[in-house]
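Researcher: Go.
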Amino acid sequence: MTDPATAPGAAQQKIDTSVPHSARIWNYWLGGKDNYPVDEEAGDAYTAVFPGIVTLARSSRAFLRRNITHLAGEAGIRQFLDIGTGLPTADNTHQVAQRIAPESRIVYVDNDPMVLAHARALLYSAPQGATAYVDADILDPDRILEVAAGTLDLERPTALILSNILGHIADYDRARFVVTRLMAALPSGSYLSVNDGSRGVDPVFEQAQDAYNESGAVPYNLRTVDQIAAYFEGLDLVDPGVVPVPLWRPDSDAPAPEPIGEHGGLARKP
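Model: Structure:
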């Protein structure tokens, strides 16, 4: 692993199973097994208010897969910095990228102890490429860049992946700063991929999320579509721009997509 602080045994001791955690609940909605009864209870309570959350979670994952497919294929990107990794599931960034380009290099970043405990699952790389895991907080972009440079050549185009992580930053201006700082360190030809829960689309979703935030769990803040779009300021958006995630270049054999309260986009740094 990139950072000695990511030792799985040490991380396991810090896992709090008495409070639901968003990464574990998300894993539960995606059909994973890396969660605890407290997470299942919170996930079921959320689903009782907003049954569409499972569709939203899986649509978000599919959006990420399509983004990585475009980046590794048509865009020719070979370096990926995935921050807010979450628990390993199917079609992780390195799996999608290295199926297309085995020489791809991927750095995952998270600071959740449950993710640390399972980080080894993120480190299986095609022999031509590399994967690494960094234990760091998104609010410390300088440390992220410093440690990521041990695996990635940050003078070469790199895709920055921020999937359902910026909503965990309570202050929107701080979230904008983090994105700006990270992208400023990447060269021309790099890409930014962002998707987050959106406000102003589905009031039932908003009701469920507001109740979750008031439950004592780590809150996740929905943003307006304009706020999500502003993360891409100064970059060249890839068509179709910032849209509900099922509408971003849907698979040709998929059912007709419908808008949901999760927006995302992909943009290139000129």
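Model: The beta strands are 79-83, 105-110, 130-135, 159-163, 191-199, 223-224, 236-237, 243-244, 262-268.
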